[in-house]
């Protein structure tokens, strides 16, 4: 059953909307190994720009919401629970009204992930930093809560065509919509802008040893330069099969990684958002609401037994890794890195398959959450949901503007449409591990949710949206 944070029964609703915003620096220490990109050995040697956490608190006099945006790759369930507990003690905001979204920034370390997916790096030497995150995030919420002032909100949707691609099946359409929430002070001065887009932040790969934000950083800079005084929060959409520019899997001719290309992408998004902002009118009578529910989804049944998979893992482990350089050479690209270093991918894939085989009857638990902000709503889930599934949720929403987010409150792995799983039916294990043949299917091959369960995620999310309406 959903948990609700409804408006109390105190007579006719009259909004006394207030809002506050704050940020915290969450950049990891230098001198630690990078987590997301393999095939490099260098330690983090500097900071291109700080990685941040931002908190927006909205209060209509009866319901209070907190939205937290992170420049991290994952926002694991344990971290989310710790943040929510601390926030409730500091502010009284209930857990179902606190949303924690990770930008899925691949220039951040691979930590604070969910427990439903195997084959990802552990916290390791980042443990002290990870332990400090809940206090940093809850502190940002507390600061925003304390700084609330009379506010007005409005929402709308822009578009950013031509800058993203379906990296799994490049002939498929992409969701290029940009939902925007505008929050102004009562006198019209800007407080915050919340923007979302569906795209993997992989514009920078393993060629850099600098901590950085990937494209959300230059996106925020562009918006904040265009609207001085505003705090721009980026929320990651349903980007499971979406990449920037022409970074589709297997593309040997893709444009190279560079900070210049990253910044161009971020500025293009920022320009589209600023254009959308111009058409948004705000008012101070926005009703707020929150709802969440926990769904238990069937874990994917794979046709290989644990013994076979462990044997294959052992065989690969006997082969030593090559001597990797400090950073990637220019010839290595995120679109083709698994083809260049297949054993690294194969070991990770086999570890994930073995994990599925060990616990076939253990469901994948996922929190679905919805926030209402006047005529806009946020529908969030912990998956790398493929973009067409996010479009289906938005299509079923009764709100004028709907943000559909992945990577929220936990990490539960990839979730493609059911028919995509059918594309791999009957394919031999050796064939699937061959990255020259099946790199295109990444996100389908490693989904740990059974066929048909994505429909439950879509339907339950739409149901929550209708409930808060």
By secondary-structure content and strand pairing, the structural class works out as alpha/beta
Give the biggest beta sheet. 8 strands, mixed
Radius of gyration computed on alpha carbons: 21 Å
What level of helicity do the residues show?
25-40%
On the 0 to 100 scale, the average pLDDT is 94
Strand percentage: 15-25%
Q: Could you tell me the number of beta strands?
A: 19
Low-confidence stretches: none
Shape: globular
Tell me the layout of helices and strands:
Layout: E1 3-5, E2 18-25, E3 46-47, E4 52-59, E5 64-70, H1 77-91, E6 98-102, H2 127-146, E7 149-159, E8 164-166, E9 177-185, E10 190-197, E11 210-211, H3 216-226, E12 231-236, E13 242-244, H4 259-278, E14 288-297, H5 306-317, H6 337-340, H7 342-358, E15 364-373, E16 376-380, E17 384-385, H8 387-395, E18 401-405, E19 414-415, H9 418-422, H10 429-433, H11 435-438, H12 453-468
Parallel strand pairs: 3-11, 5-6, 10-12, 16-18, 17-19
Antiparallel strand pairs: 1-14, 2-4, 2-7, 4-5, 7-9, 8-13, 9-10, 14-15, 15-16
Helix pairs in contact: 1-2, 3-4, 5-7, 8-12
